[in-house]
Amino acid sequence: MLVGRFVMRTRYRLRIGLASMASVLVVALLSARPAVSAELPPGKQAIFLARIIAYDANLKERAGAEVNIGVLAKRGDKESEKMADLLVRAWRPVEAATVLGLSVRVSRLWFTGREALDRAVRDGGIDTVYVCSGLDASLADIKAVARVRRVLTLASQEEHLKLGLSLGVFEIDGHNTIVVNLEANREEGVAFGPELLRLATVVR
Question: pTM (2 decimals)?
Fold first, then answer.
């Protein structure tokens, strides 16, 4: 159960169990039939992904004292910059929360090359990276850094899961759907258990 894992520092606790998550995050098999996929609004993505991150059995080991989410974008690409702005704003309320008792910090990252990204991840203590649009040509470098630094990658586009990113939440055929790439999970040092995976579309 995810009850108590994602706690708002206000007068109440935000509680969500697997049954309620299942009611909004519906399995959609990629191989069953052609599916129509679309991005979720940034606010929905932020809250869903924050909840899902708490299912990583290795989170505390990977993250240390706090969960550091980096929103990675391509400078000069208007759509990429706009997506980053929206996601950073959407995640700000999550900074008033804890995930598995860990505080949450969100920052913006610009992709300028593999070495620069590696330094930014290392120096900033980044353990989770949301990959915005405009970075298709840089996925190999992003994945390489994520594997070495044990960083969970979050995809903004469903096709990026098939190209080796780790986790995404999308609207598929009208349903909010978790998509998980198990091989990418393992290579990034992430361990999602069966309680999450039974709700997700799994890319192998």
Answer: 0.84
